[in-house]
Specification:
By secondary structure, this protein is an alpha+beta fold. The chain has four domains: 155 residues, Sandwich (Immunoglobulin-like); 297 residues, Transglutaminase-like (Coagulation Factor XIII, Chain A, domain 2), CATH 3.90.260; 109 residues, Immunoglobulin-like, CATH 2.60.40; 47 residues, no CATH class. The chain is 16% helix and 36% strand. Strands 1, 2, 3, 4, 5, 6, 7, 8, 9, 10 and 11 form an eleven-stranded mixed beta sheet that branches. Strands 22-19-18-16-25-26 form a six-stranded antiparallel beta sheet, with helices on both faces. It has a four-stranded antiparallel beta sheet with strand order 30-29-32-33, covered by helices on one side. Helix 4 packs across helix 6. Its cofactor is Ca(2+). Its main location: cytoplasm.
């Protein structure tokens, strides 16, 4: 018998892997054993742990009305456990068996997640008690001591793993480390924090945070462009067990715990696990009107039943269509603290071979040949946008990202889609990951009708450039109305800029046609350069676009400049400049074109970091070739001159003059100076 039990335990061991010493750590649910007494060596006979500092009780202040859940905007979660957001301090109290004496007693805190905690992976976090908390870094300090109790303020890292952590208090003794025993009452959930500037999902508008993170109901727009219908949807991200169900989805997707602080990775794996194709995910889709042994998609009213059923049965829930996938995905994102909204695209293209055009093949009589035609246009299609920075892309592509849980096409071998930057889609820069060409085609593809002649050649009969993506909408912030966001995705239909973005997208994203072997030839005989004049805050400045025509032909170039104000993280706040012009390019010569940027155009929207991001796109009309560039620029902010008067001797008074030139055409009010001299004087604030 002993042998058989032995083999069954053998089986449970993860397979050995020659490349890694520690097995993969991709379950938030699994735990390791943590020793309550970790001896340094032989323990002398007289050793009695009771002689040392001992933890009697830990108070987590975890009730909805208490300080932690109030300050962290987590008071709506129906959960008895502590739930906090990363990069922001929270409070706990430890009661010892006697007063804590910092001179002789030493204790620290430990947060662990998963079965194989490791410090370098962020899955084992020891926290020493210090004097100050550094913003956005793990740390703890004592805020209050009374009798046998200490109050602690704990700061979590702003890029910490999202999930459920186990918590221990460890006390040092000369013979070993004494730990509190495993107590699930002290488990701590850590979520994304859109209120924290250092968090990748930081959103700077309180009304938007209330809508895109805290609102647990919403509206789905459906129907067709000429007959828009709406249905309400209950997201229910705060309901009982939903947070655990959402964490389970990441376990199901086998996302390494160390990757769970990154919203890009979380969105990407979630877009695959929301649908049941290829990974037994949450919802099975059905579009054929037969819903045997399941709930018809239109019967669902919200996400909670679906997520809870999946969490308990671990089997796909039947059935969903696009708005069901999107509704559940929205719950998942908001529950974890990623700002998210559900978006509907009317006349949405499903471009089967990602050539940015929908190919409709006609037969001899001019009817669509259903055997050959693989692309389709949906009356509407719902997906989600999630808000985050994109440090993996150039500046300017953060902000709203398209993620789509509806299984349409595979991406890197799985049914998933996104995150794809909305800003990159608008400007046609579809070379940036993930799945931008597919989303671009959904909102912009041209419908190409072609007919095959008897001799086998294909003749293009008609190209419809305005049908796809006529209207893109989401629910308005703080109300139930419809907000149109078409222009976040595309320029005015039929405008020069829109055609230009399409041709840029074709340049970056097109796959070679198999029907006609035409490969893309870049424009080599014209070069475009783009300079932004150094500018001081509040002044006008110019940007210069220079073309070098190296050929012997005369060309004209339709050129479009877009100027955007961006956060320093690269997230776009607003477009403040649009300018189109036609440039004549003489043979074998350079031509420069200046565009004036007036201060009045950018001052009202400017942010504290004063950064701009420009796109320039040009089409050579005679050859149809595209040139595209982008550039980030930052305004000069006036420098401060500091002068001292009198003796600079320690312990004596002296006066300091601070000067700067106000570059604005208005008087400054409410000016605050902060003066700090490390080791010399505490920070002084003075209002003028």
């Amino acid at each position: 018998m002993s042998e058989t039990t032995n083999t069954s335990t053998e089986k449970k061991k993860p397979p050995l892997n020659g490349r890694r010493a520690v097995p993969s750590n991709n379950s938030n649910d699994e735990e390791n054993e943590v020793p309550e007494m970790e001896a340094f060596g032989l323990i002398p006979r007289g050793f009695n742990p009771k002689d040392y500092l001992r933890v009697v009780d830990i108070q987590m202040f975890k009730h909805p009305h208490e300080i932690n859940k109030q300050q962290h905007h987590t008071d709506k979660y129906y959960s008895p456990k502590l739930i906090v957001r990363r990069g922001q301090p929270f409070q706990i109290q430890i009661d010892f068996n006697r007063p804590y004496r910092p001179e002789t007693d030493q204790f620290w805190l430990e947060y662990l997640i998963g079965r194989y905690p490791q410090q370098n992976k962020g899955t084992y976090i020891p926290i020493l008690i210090g004097d100050v908390l550094k913003p956005g870094e793990w740390g703890a300090k004592i805020t209050h001591k009374e009798n046998n109790s200490v109050r602690l303020s704990i700061m979590s890292s702003a890029n910490c793993i999202i999930g459920k952590f186990r918590f221990y208090v460890a006390v040092w003794t000369p013979f070993g480390i004494l730990r509190t025993h495993r107590n699930s009452e002290t488990d701590t959930y850590i979520l994304f924090n859109p209120w924290c500037q250092q968090d990748a999902v930081y959103l700077d508008d309180e009304k938007e945070r209330e809508e895109y993170v805290l609102n647990d109901v919403g509206i789905v727009f459906h129907g067709s462009i000429n007959d828009i219908k709406l249905r309400s949807w209950s997201y229910g991200q705060f309901e009982e067990n939903i947070l655990d169900a959402c964490l389970f989805l990441m376990d199901k997707a086998e996302l390494e715990l160390s990757g769970r602080g990154n919203p890009i990775k979380i969105c990407r794996v979630a877009s695959a696990v929301i649908n049941s194709k290829d990974d037994n995910g949450v919802i099975a889709g059905s579009w054929d009107n037969t819903y045997t042994n399941g709930v018809p998609p239109s019967a669902w009213t919200g996400s909670v039943d679906i997520l809870l059923e999946y969490y308990s049965s671990k089997q796909p829930v039947r059935y969903g269509q696009c708005w069901v996938f999107a509704g559940v995905f929205n719950t998942f994102l908001r529950c974890l603290g990623i700002p998210a909204r559900l978006v509907t695209n009317y006349s949405s293209a499903h471009d089967n071979n990602a050539n940015l055009q929908l190919d409709f093949f006609l037969d001899d009589e001019g009817k669509v040949d259903t055997k050959l035609t693989k692309d389709s246009v949906w009356n509407y299609h719902c997906w989600n946008e999630a808000w985050m920075t994109r440090p993996d892309l150039p500046v300017g592509f953060g902000g709203w990202q398209v993620v789509d849980g509806t299984p349409q096409e595979t991406s890197d071998g799985m049914y998933r889609c996104g995150p794809a930057s909305v800003q990159a889609i608008k400007h046609g820069h579809v070379c940036f990951q993930f799945d931008a060409p597919f989303v671009y085609a959904e909102v912009n593809g041209d419908i190409v009708y072609s007919r095959r002649e008897k001799n086998g050649t294909q003749v293009i009969e008609n190209i419809d450039t305005t049908h796809i993506g006529q209207l893109i909408v989401t629910k308005e912030v703080g109300g139930d109305g419809m907000m149109e966001i078409t222009e976040e995705y595309k320029f005015q239909e039929g405008s020069a800029e829109e055609r230009l973005a399409l041709e840029t997208a074709v340049m970056y994203g097109v796959k070679k046609q198999t029907t006609q072997d035409t490969t893309y030839q870049p424009q080599t005989d014209v070069e475009m350069l783009f300079q932004v004049q150094k500018a001081v805050l509040g002044s006008d400045f110019k940007v210069t676009i220079t073309f070098r025509n190296k050929s012997r032909n005369s060309y004209t170039a339709t050129t479009y400049l877009s100027g955007n104000i961006v956060f320093y993280t690269g997230v776009t706040k607003s477009e403040f400049k649009k300018h189109s012009f036609s440039a004549k390019l003489e043979p074998s010569s350079s031509s420069a074109f200046d565009v004036l940027i007036k201060s009045s155009e950018y001052m009202s929207d400017l942010l504290d970091q004063a950064s701009f991001h420009f796109f320039v796109t040009a089409r050579i009309n005679e050859t149809g070739k595209i040139l595209a560039m982008q550039k980030a620029a930052i305004l000069e902010i006036p420098t401060l001159q500091i002068k001292t008067q009198g003796e600079t001797v320690a312990g004596k008074e002296m006066s300091v003059t601070v000067e700067f030139i106000n570059p604005l055409k208005q008087t400054l009010e409410n000016v605050t100076f902060r003066l700090e001299g490390p080791g010399v004087l505490r920070t002084m604030k003075k209002e003028f």
